[in-house]
Design goal:
- The protein is α+β, with helices and mostly antiparallel strands.
- It has two domains: about 10-100, NE0471 N-terminal domain-like, CATH 3.30.2020.30; about 110-200, Beta-grasp domain (Ubiquitin-like (UB roll), Roll), CATH 3.10.20.30.
- The chain has helices at about 35-40, 45-50, 90-110, 110-120, 135-140, 155-160, 165-170; strands at about 10-15, 20-25, 30-35, 65-70, 75-80, 85-90, 125-130, 140-145, 175-180, 185, 195-200.
- The chain has a five-stranded mixed β-sheet. A three-stranded antiparallel β-sheet has the order 1-2-3.
- A hairpin with a 3-residue loop joins strand 4 (about 65-70) and strand 5.
- The longest helix is centred in the middle third of the chain and has 19 residues, at about 90-110.
Amino acid sequence: MPKHHPVPTEIRLHTRRRILEIAFGDGTHFELPCRHLRAHAPSADVRLARERGETVTVNPHVNVRAIHPVGSYAVRLEFDDGHHHGIFSWEALYELGRVLENAGSAHAEGSLESGRHSATAGSGMIRILYFASLADRLGHEMEEVPLAGVDDVAGLLARLRVRGRPWAEALEPDAVRVTVNKAFAGPHTPVAAGDEVAMVPVRAG
């Protein structure tokens, strides 16, 4: 298990709050909303929606009904809307927690972050966040790049891949999950000046 993806030491479902609480061996602790897990379920219907550039819409009150262990590397979550095929690896759960944690930190910065975002918008730039192994491989955790010539997520990935072989390999469309302004994104999701784009590796590497 890579150092970025420790094994959980505790997984607890809070049905009333609709929260899956997870503690990892490195001391990190996440509370993942069930609706967020459902929207990011690694399954055929969600993957197809992502490929089409569609937004995954779920019932905001969806809950996890049962947790089924899958070997020593993952769990299968059964949701009360009937979805029960999504297998979440420790890596996937860890990365979802990291993305949510980052979103929460940005929100907590309040007006300061708002000012930064406005400055980025005014300069025709977008902010890109790289998580886990992407940050190590590409040498960036965050950067701002000019928007000129980029209309959507696919165009942004294409621009970054021409930087060289490491970028081309790390940012293949099937190798990363992308969010735009904290919302799950597909290849045809538009990007605009001032947007914040987060990239999370699908697999460890």
